Amino acid sequence: MEPPGHSKRKAPRRRDDRVILHFDLDCFYAQCVENQQPSLKTLPLGIRQKGILATCNYVARRRGVGKLTTLAEAKRLCPDLVIVDGEDLSPFRDVSKRLYAVLRSHSWNGKAERLGLDEIFLDVTDIVSYNLELLNRSSLAHSYFCLSRTDPEQGFEFDATSFSGCVHGDTNEADAARGDPLGDTLYMRLLLASHLAKYLRLKIEDEGYTAACGISTNKLLAKLVGNKNKPQNQTTLLALNEDAIFAFMDEHGLRKVPGIGSKVTRILEGFVLEKEIDRDMHSMECSVTAGQVRTHPLIQNPSVLDNLLGGRGSERGLSSKVWRLLHGVDDTEVKPARVVPTQISIEDTYKGLNDVSEIRREMGLITASLLRRMHADLLDEDDSQALTQNPSSSSSSRRWIACPRTIRLTTRPYTAPADGKPYNWARASRSTELPSFVFSQSMTSEQIVGRLVVETLMPLFQKLNPAPKGWNTGLINVCVANMAGPATGQGGGVRDIGVMFRRQDDLLREFRNDHGEGWGDEPGFASDDDDNIWDEHRGQTASQEEGSEQCPLCGHFLPSFAFAAHERFHSMEINGD
Ligand code: DGT
Ligand code: MG
Question: Does the Cβ of 123 fall within 6 Å of ligand 1?
């Protein structure tokens, strides 16, 4: 309820037309370790990183140990705590990718976003709406949830007369508000989503991991409500009107609201309490609730927040964002799953190479890196339930989930900083078809690299640098692009990658997408995973397409109108060097 005298307070507009699930794996690092060493499951277990416990399992939590406790404190609270080193993140990354692939494979619209290693948002609006249409109101208790539009066998039975898992909100009021269960679409969409969430949690459990899940109409509310019942549980936010959403938001400590950081918390807390707040920026503490700010008599609209938060250097739009968050409004979309990079490139820089054997050697090193990267990002294990594109292939083989069709070499002469010359823009590129032996599973990597350098890259280099010597090469970049689906069996052509991913089964594959963890993490190397909408040129040497220009820096073709912006992008890159 609004306090008296606040009739002018205007809440931001909200949209309730989406259904979002938020999954948060329980004590993630600890679960990964427990799965490696199942005997640890019943013991209190902490995972150590840099002198603190990054996390601990729920056995330890019941003994009073918390996340981010110091080792000494944890040992004091629980002397028999088993502590395992968690500095190496690779096993956690692998599990994270695997579980993400499971959830993503159930998305129809591809909106499946990872947050860190153990949180995943899914926008399931389309699946839920589809199933709402299918509901038979005369037998709600024996409903069937379809997981595929085309295959009616994919799905599960459920009872549409009640929610699955926990519900947060005033169910009595909600019951009164809806005379006819099917009459209240929002109620029914949330109910259906709760059953889908349960099904997906069980899918994750089949992989050996438990998770908490929040179900609501936006990312903020789904994430917050999922915390209500942990671990191995789920909560649907049943807030069918604005007041119910305010009531839910208001109880949260300000700092607990995702998107409200320590600085904003400190300012708003100071404003509400009318005193200076002096606190460590990493602290999650806050003695003021979101509700105290939202209903503060002097904060009636975002312009007041503007005065408080809009100082020099503050994030643009911050005050209206905070205003919306306080009201439980979050229109940000669940980002679409990245499946394969549109191109992969590796480059290195040199202080002027002139010797052909040096060029060949460096080209070999770059190509070996590139091949490793292609294997990591584009090859997948061909497991038993593999999408048998080529049923006769050996079961132990690995399968290319996407094949680049073009290889591009870019070089640039060296400019010594001491020369005082402007940055040398003279990058030049040549492309050609990527030879099929690159995808061979019978050749060794060394053989592939050797052939690629001799048969493809050195000839491209000679075309780019026709003079017999004096190249002074300062940069070599090798890039593979124009991703296409893998061959469809013997003699088959390549399929369009877009068509390929439309098949839900294909989405089951883990595409080794390191989204958010950086693709270009090899020191001294660059790797490009930007959406490469202009990389459409095909065939032999790259040539300019009608209405497009080729960037001399990176070889991308882009529409003429986009050229100036693209050039600015490079100049920022260069200035940032
Ligand atoms: P939960 O979700 O409460 O059951 O427990 P966790 O362990 O899954 O915690 P969560 O979801 O906040 O974070 C996922 C993993 O990320 C966690 O297992 C350890 C790691 N992590 C989270 N926050 C920190 C941090 O501040 N420092 C370090 N070193 N690791 C962190
Ligand atoms: Mg977690």
Answer: no
